[in-house]
Amino acid sequence: MRAVITVIGKDMVGILARVSAICAENGVNVVEVTQSVLQEFFAMIMMVDLEGSKIPVSELSDALSALGEEMGLKIHVMHEDIFNSMHRI
Amino acid sequence: MLNTRDILETINMIENENLDIRTITMGISLLDCMDSDCGKACDKIYDKICRYAANLVKTGEDISKEYGIPIINKRISVTPIAMVAGACPGADPIHFAKALNKAASTVGVNFIGGYSALVHKGFAPGDYALIKSIPEALSQTELVCSSVNIGTTKAGINMDAVKMMGQVVVDVAKATADRDCIGAAKLVIFCNAPEDNPFMAGAFHGPGEPDCVINVGVSGPGVVRAALQKAGDCDITAVADIIKRTAFKITRMGQLVAQEASRRLYVPFGIVDLSLAPTPAVGDSVAHILEEMGLECCGAHGTTACLALLNDAVKKGGVMASSHVGGLSGAFIPVTEDAGMIDAARCGALSITKLEAMTAVCSVGLDMINIPGDTPPEIISAIIADEAAIGMVNSKTTAVRVIPAIGKKAGDELSFGGLLGGGPVMDVNRYSPMKFINRGGRIPAPMQSLKN
Question: By CA distance, what is A45's nearest residue in B?
Fold first, then answer.
């Protein structure tokens, strides 16, 4: 399955690195990344492939939420299908 | 790659606008649990529910985590117990209520619906005893919800049952007076009750349903309101269009969750209920949508028109998003469960008479309304008869869930907590309908029923 990781919050050094590090540690392949910084507001969207993931998506979600809390960011992991079904006919 | 704006919009809906799946409800048929021995029947019921729904809560939680969508409630609806209890005449139906409560608590759901009787044309074996036992059942159990269908467009209105239910509502409130009369919040009296409704307290698994089924109820008043707020000053056609688009997105999410739950539980998918169900949380109110449309306060003149538009647009948007739509599907207006309605009732802008008019154009009916504790049973029966008449003539579901606030008068407050909320006691018209209610009999089915 593919999932979308979104990171929203205040821009700071190392966001991309730390999120990617958690993905890499767990065998989660980053397929695509887009990010934008509007003034201090940071929004990053990562499409990841969980095919080779060593952990279930719920654990990945917990790990990233914990990182988000530590860095003062909102990090969500959501199944790609949510967006496909809501925004595409 | 997905559109960044779409992704952020979805996240914003969930984070800030209270978008959620309100309930995944598993419908379970208990027709094969009938037994002339009440104890055996109760054992069969307990075993079947525990077997079928063993993974319901966990599956709901897994989907919630994987998809990143809050799924608020996991619930069960069962065959109307009066049909099962009818097989063991003389047995006290309260045993069934206890079996349901025990099963619900074992599998971890937060409500189980189906302590019900369908008496729109008359009383079958089991119906009478079950209705009589409702006060005891709702006061002695925590998780059991009860409903009674007293009328349909096809059959007319059973006025004997209407008379009985006025007294039952009072008795339920009295039996739970020490808990803010919460029992009455778990009892719904229907006209044209749907057989596949996933929402409590009125959910039951109709006799025409399969052995087991998954029904999903979506929600999202906050999302609709936010979308209208963003649109600013547009004309009413544009308002309807915005609601349709938003309802489409919300329902697509419901459809996805329903299909996924059905796949993981190996249970067929039944329906998605396209309802806008409010909660007492700020930002999750149907009343606030109506106010966003341009009313100073819900209950003002114009409320019925705004609600009619909202109800219709929600259906139009939702119907294309789901392969099977059912249940109640429309906007809910439960007073104590909606922050905007509570405020409107407190300031006097919203009255029961206005609410009655509103029920003619939306789903459900007079829902979660606190009335004075000394309201005579015949007045409650007459409220039920009025609502049932609206449902019968308009070929729609209507219901009454009023809570007589024992020991309290208009202006006092009841507080149930959780999703049931709380709010002020609203006054009722005190002129007596006693003679009318005491006549009994059946209101004949209207011309609308003769469609063949």
Answer: B4
